[in-house]
Amino acid sequence: MAKRPNPRAIKATRTYTVEEAAIALGVSIGTIRAWVKSGLPLMKSRRPFLILGDALRDFLGNRAKVATVPLQPDQLYCPTCKAGRRPMGLLVDCIPQTPKTARLFGLCEVCGGPCNRMISQTKIDHFSQIFEVAIKEGRQA
Ligand SMILES: [Zn+2]
Q: N or C: where does the chain have the smaller number of CB atoms within 10 Å of the terminal CB?
């Protein structure tokens, strides 16, 4: 699992070559090139091409926003719709993942695909008031 690059590793006031940006963020040069293709601004007035620290931080900040979809209390995350969705019939299975966390699993009321939400086990009671929760056997330690 790659950890998410930390925008704070980048100084807003300096410029980076693709190689320097990759080293500063602990990602590959290929990753930086992919970001440039998907909209990271590159200063092409002279070689080597430079990335403004400021632009890089903005770019990473926007990506982080897209990655975190805010969920309403009665929603799970549907990876097919890429959005928060109510589970069909408000029916969810609750599958313990670790001693502290559990996964709520349901079917998207829009596309019918699987959707889920990680919750703290202390919140199971709270979610039981919103959803019809069926507690399943999980990978308990
Ligand atoms: Zn869906």
A: N
Ligand 1 centre to CA of 82 (Å) is: 7
Ion ligand 1, residue ranges at CB < 5 A:
78, 80-81, 85, 108, 110-111, 113
Coil vs helix vs strand at 6: coil
CATH topology of domain 7-67: Arc Repressor Mutant, subunit A (1.10.10)
Where are the CATH 1.10.10 domain residues in the chain? Answer: 7-67
Burial 83-116 (b: 16+ CB within 10 A, else e): ebbbbeeeebbbbbeeeeebbbbbbbbeeeeebb
With cut-offs at 50, 70 and 90, classify the pLDDT of residue 92.
very high
Q: What's the whole-model pTM score?
A: 0.54
**pLDDT at position 64:** 66
H helices of the chain, in order, are 18-25, 29-37, 53-67, 124-128
